[in-house]
Amino acid sequence: MKFFQKFVLPLLILTFIVALAVFLAYQFQLIPHCSFSSEDFGIIPYQSPFDADQDGLDDQTDLLISARTYLATKPRYKSQYYATGYPNDNYGVCTDVVAFALLGTGYDLQTLFHHDLIDHPDAYDIPTPDQNIDFRRTPNLEIFFSRHAENLTTELSDPADWQPGDLVIFDHAHIAILSDLRNSRGFPFLLHHHSSFQIRYEEDSLSSYGKITSHFRLQPLEQ
């Protein structure tokens, strides 16, 4: 019994603590998850027939690459009003990932959203429009994309339904872009920005972040 208490029990406790620490680190993406490509699952990546900025990249691919380009700047998280509309100080929120990705694809979301709001005010619950902030609010974008993008399934049943460059909204409150990296089940990682404590901007959290309330695929947006 003394041997157990002196040597075995402390070892068991230490093993439990280490296992728990590894589990939590994995759950919170401190340890990167294994990733695979669409081709590993026989999934053909979707390519848009459109190229808004005429740069030789289709809109779907351009959106993905532009999102990565923006996130490579490692923006810090802060919800703040900007007279410029787009943040200009290396801070931002989840909607800015989408806004800057669209800008790199050839679409000015700030202008597009404001025009749609002015032309169709009844579609939005915005009593006092403000072009500098309205396009940076997730509930507003959920309405905008439901009107101007392809509405897709929210069920995580077939990984092929979830394509790199798609937009996903969780709980009507958080928006992300799907990565071209997939987890062991074939579902894409998220490219997103959600916290001041975020270490990785590309995470395996499509099925765990929250309830998926919308899933969109970009269609040509009127300039």
Give the proportion of residues in helices.
25-40%
Form type: globular
Helix-strand sequence:
HHEEHHHEEEEEE
Mean pLDDT: 90
What's this, in brief?
With 223 residues, the protein is α+β, with helices and mostly antiparallel strands. It has a six-stranded antiparallel beta sheet, covered by helices on one side.
Describe, in plain words, how this protein is organized in 3D.
The protein has 223 residues and is α+β, with helices and mostly antiparallel strands. It folds into two domains: 1-31; 35-217, no CATH class. It has five helices and eight strands. It has helices spanning 2-27, 59-71, 94-105, 109-119, 138-148, and strands spanning 76-77, 91-92, 150-151, 167-170, 174-182, 188-191, 202-203, 212-217. The strands form two sheets. The chain has a six-stranded antiparallel beta sheet, with helices on one face. It has a two-stranded parallel sheet with strand order 1-2. β4 (167-170) and β5 (174-182) form a beta hairpin. α2 crosses α3 (94-105). It is globular and about 75 Å long. The model has no long low-confidence stretch (mean pLDDT 90).
